[in-house]
Specification:
Number of domains: 2
Number of helices: 10
Bound molecules: flavin-adenine dinucleotide
Order of helices and strands: HHEEHEHEEEEHEHEEHEEEEEHEHEEH
Strand content: 15-25%
Distance between the termini: 34 Å
Shape: globular
Radius of gyration: 23 Å
CATH class of the largest domain: Alpha Beta
Structural class: alpha+beta
Number of strands: 18
Length: 442
């Protein structure tokens, strides 16, 4: 639910890399068009768009203590990460309905765009369907084969096929359709319909290292008798007026930090969570606590997505190659040290219990061992159908698959490089811009 666009220069970097029409001045109008911000319209915010963006109704006290700890660590406070300056510490704005009957509910892309359009005669939504192949006549996309239950069916396209399977699903579907690196296709016995070496390459993701603290503060989200009673009370409050604990995005506060003050933009991001999130919540921790995540905003490491086999229902092969570039490891370690220092500031004293896994006195080697053992994705994969020019680009700046006709990719996979922030709002911006390109082409 965190509403973050990244840094304006991220988009200028895209334009400089050959994505004509995707500089900050080009994309800002589409961010504004999508946005329905509770703060009202301004030069940097839209208020009339379908994507509801609002303040968190009920942040936990420990999130405020985190902000105070940041201030005590000489980090400036910033109440708008999408404002004139990105760096600093603050509460995240969230994609949540802040008005009307749905107040306090997540405003997903489906809630913002799809649900209001469900009655349109030219829209047919099919759930439980898996696209297995794009149909091609020569290089022209004519439809999609899909599986639903035990049935294999075809949807034909009069105008275009738009692929929006995300950074893992889109390259997988292109590969299953014979569009991709010839060697990868041949390895799986798939006929090469269109050789495109960049499909699945250039995978980038935010690698995240989390530090966790137990806490006596039962206003955090935790597994305890008191915590259960608070959740039950929160359910009643949420039903009553759409506020309270259940509206928490968990990652309530955060910061964009420069590892070196001389840098022109932040290269690290913090997510402060009001619960103990260990191994994506796969490890259950009893009791209360909080966690702070740090990630490297623009990693150098590149991974790839391919096929495990030619079975369209199988999961793709994902190799993120995290930390394959030593510069990422060094910056993440530096970020972990900065985070540890913030978390030791006096403001968090009343909330602070024992740190889990670490002591804060680790040597450089020990810290790196922790990072290599526990750092993991914070769910921002992009880049596997890279937009741009050159042999490795998969789509052109109109998001058309290069060398084909009537086929576009519209999702996070087209980002040529990871932006310095969370990727939901940028993906919605990409979709808004694609809609305009499609209209213009008609
Ligand atoms: C746990 C989690 C938390 C996140 N939190 C935030 C946040 O707070 N803020 C933020 O900005 N970003 C967040 N993100 C990132 C954000 O959700 C993504 O960047 C965004 O959803 C990317 O959109 P997309 O359309 O590219 O892909 P997706 O949203 O992944 O959509 C792709 C869809 O295509 C479907 N699909 C794939 N292949 C096929 C196929 N062959 N046939 C049919 N359907 C297929 C998938 O099931 C999926 O529904 C989070 C991600 C995760 C996983």
């Amino acid at each position: 639910m965190l509403y973050v666009r990244g840094h304006p220069s991220d988009y200028d970097d895209w334009a400089a890399a050959g994505c004509t029409g995707w500089g900050w001045a080009d994309v800002l109008p589409f961010f504004l068009k999508a946005e329905g911000n509770q703060r009202g319209p301004s030069a940097l915010h839209g208020a009339g768009g379908p994507l509801q963006v609002g303040e968190q109704p009920s942040p936990r006290p420990v999130s405020r203590a985190f902000l105070e700890a940041c201030a005590q660590s000489q980090i400036r406070l910033n109440d708008d990460f999408n404002g004139p300056e990105q760096d600093g510490a603050g509460l995240y704005q969230v994609t949540q309905f802040w008005q009307g009957a749905q107040r306090g509910e997540r405003c997903s892309a489906a809630a913002a765009y799809l649900h209001p359009a469900m009655e349109r005669k030219n829209l047919h939504v099919m759930t439980g369907a898996r696209a297995t192949r794009i149909l091609l006549e020569e290089k022209r996309a004519t439809g999609v084969r899909y599986r639903r239950g035990n049935h294999e069916e075809t949807a034909t396209a009069r105008r275009e096929v738009l692929v929006a399977g995300g950074a893992f699903g889109s390259p997988q579907l292109l590969l299953l359709s014979g569009i991709g690196p010839a060697d990868e296709l041949k390895r799986h016995g798939i006929e090469v319909r269109h050789a495109l070496p960049g499909v699945g390459r250039n995978l980038q993701d935010h690698l995240d290292f989390v530090m966790l603290w137990k806490s006596p503060d039962t206003d955090t989200v935790g597994i305890s008798a008191v915590g259960t009673l608070k959740i039950l009370a929160a359910m009643r409050q949420w039903r009553r007026d759409g506020t309270g604990l259940l509206t928490s995005p968990a990652a309530e506060a955060g910061a964009f930090l420069k590892s070196d003050p001389a840098l022109p933009r932040a290269d690290l991001q913090l997510h402060f969570l009001v619960s103990l999130v260990d191994d994506h919540l796969r490890k259950i921790r009893f009791g209360h606590g909080y966690s702070c995540h740090v990630c490297v905003l623009r990693p150098y490491s590149r991974g790839e997505v391919g096929l495990k086999d030619a079975d369209p229902l199988a999961a793709p092969r994902i190799d993120p190659r995290f930390l394959s570039d030593e510069r990422d490891a060094a910056l993440l370690a530096k970020g972990a040290r900065i985070t540890q220092a913030i978390m030791g500031a006096p403001a968090l004293e009343p909330h602070r219990g024992r740190q889990i896994y670490m002591t804060g006195r680790e040597s450089d080697d020990e810290l790196m061992a922790h990072i290599r053992a526990r750092a993991d994705t914070i769910y921002h994969p992009v880049g596997t159908c890279r937009m741009g020019t050159g042999e490795d680009a998969v789509v052109d700046p109109q998001l058309r698959v290069r060398g084909t006709e009537r086929l576009r990719v519209v999702d996070a996979s087209v980002m040529p490089t990871l932006i310095g922030g969370n990727t939901n709002a940028p993906t919605i911006m990409i979709a808004e811009k694609a809609a305009e390109a499609i209209r213009a082409a008609r």
